[in-house]
């Protein structure tokens, strides 16, 4: 193994360790509002978490660009160490709790699920059927394990909750589409607008700042007018964003920055309403694992979607699906955004006819 291969292996191992720890952060951010706040205030609190995520996104883009500009990219791995500064606040403000169950941890079940997810992502990214088959096999073993273990990694009965399961399906689809804002858009700015890495980060900052400023507004709207209202508003903003990006893929950079504001705010609102709705379908003893599964599936859907977008962009496009788009050099990006706009329109209609006409608990108008 040469030096470059060793460096790659160490970087990959470091990212695995980093991701293993970082995965707990968004799950905790959603679990705290569910555990410590009543349903009538939960939207506002989730809005505050959205503000923190958006601010982190804005500052992260700028900080990363500055680090890469003035230092080696390896220093990016030191930034997450700042999370250690928050530990005293967790210890101070989160009281000790009596656990609902003192059973043993299902290490085998967790390992099977982790392997299944890893193989799935590798299969999608590399287009390798063997990885996908391995993922299905380990998933089958995981299902067998949780049905037979005394203290399973995930209680199978949680998936018997149809409203919870419907929410997970919606979340997987919506987050898989939403990652295009943060993955496809930088590629568009690089290949079509020909921006450097440093400037791409700055172009995306206004959208992150707008999400931070309006995050609390979205949470309050969920509490006052219901989850369905916020869902429709978020869907409308995302439709506008993807429609504009599909039509004007070659527009000046300032135009892309403005379009992304609609999308980022819409995706932030969507996260609030999904988390608020799904949490309302869970009993107290299922809240931890239920929201953990929700967070896990968000990561999986975004990882799979990113792999799909990469493949589509690599293949390119010779046909323009949006007849209004005048930019021939950006066909593939225009087509991706057009498909995402169409999918959001279908989800909008599905949600309206399935949940939007009623006002009751869970995934429906208000939790």
From TrEMBL:
InterPro entries, per the entry: MFS, MFS_dom, MFS_trans_sf
Every Major facilitator superfamily (MFS) profile domain range: 1-359
Record membrane topology: Multi-pass membrane protein
Subcellular location: Cell membrane
Bilayer-crossing regions: 12-33, 45-67, 73-91, 103-122, 128-144, 164-184, 196-215, 227-245, 251-275, 287-310, 330-353
PROSITE patterns named in the record: MFS
Keywords in alphabetical order: Membrane, Transmembrane, Transmembrane helix, Transport
Protein name per its UniProtKB record: Major facilitator superfamily (MFS) profile domain-containing protein
Protein source organism: Brevibacillus agri
Taxonomic lineage from the root: Bacteria, Bacillati, Bacillota, Bacilli, Bacillales
């Amino acid at each position: 193994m040469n030096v470059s291969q060793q460096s790659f292996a160490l970087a990959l191992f470091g990212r695995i360790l980093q991701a293993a720890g970082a995965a707990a952060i968004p799950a905790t951010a959603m679990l705290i509002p569910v555990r410590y706040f009543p349903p009538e205030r939960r939207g506002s609190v989730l809005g505050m978490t959205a503000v923190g995520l958006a601010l982190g996104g804005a500052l992260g883009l700028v900080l990363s660009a500055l680090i890469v500009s003035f230092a080696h990219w390896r220093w990016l791995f030191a930034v997450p160490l700042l999370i250690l500064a928050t530990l005293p606040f967790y210890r101070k403000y989160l009281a000790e709790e009596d656990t609902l169950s003192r059973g043993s941890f299902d290490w085998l079940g967790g390992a099977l699920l982790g392997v299944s997810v890893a193989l799935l992502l590798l299969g999608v990214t590399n287009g390798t059927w063997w990885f996908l088959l391995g993922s299905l096999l380990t998933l089958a073993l995981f299902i067998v394990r949780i049905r037979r273990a005394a203290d399973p990694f995930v209680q199978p009965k949680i998936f018997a909750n149809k409203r919870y399961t419907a929410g997970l399906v919606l979340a997987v689809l919506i987050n898989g589409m939403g990652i295009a804002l943060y993955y496809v858009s930088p590629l568009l700015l690089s290949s079509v607008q020909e921006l450097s890495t440093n400037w791409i980060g700055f172009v995306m900052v206004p959208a992150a700042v707008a999400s931070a400023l309006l995050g609390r507004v979205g949470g309050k709207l969920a509490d006052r007018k219901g989850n369905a209202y916020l869902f429709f508003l978020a869907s409308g903003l995302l439709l506008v964003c993807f429609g504009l990006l599909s039509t004007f893929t070659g527009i000046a950079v300032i135009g892309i920055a403005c379009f992304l504001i609609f999308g980022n705010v819409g995706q932030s609102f969507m996260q609030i309403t999904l988390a608020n709705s799904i949490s309302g379908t869970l009993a107290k003893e299922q809240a931890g694992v239920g929201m953990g599964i929700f967070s896990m599936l968000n990561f999986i859907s975004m990882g799979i979607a990113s792999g799909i977008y990469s493949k589509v962009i690599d293949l390119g496009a010779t046909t323009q699906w949006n007849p209004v788009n005048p930019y021939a050099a950006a066909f593939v990006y225009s087509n991706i955004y057009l498909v995402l706009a169409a999918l959001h329109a279908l989800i909008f209609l599905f949600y309206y006819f399935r949940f939007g006409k009623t006002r009751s608990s869970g995934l429906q108008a208000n939790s």
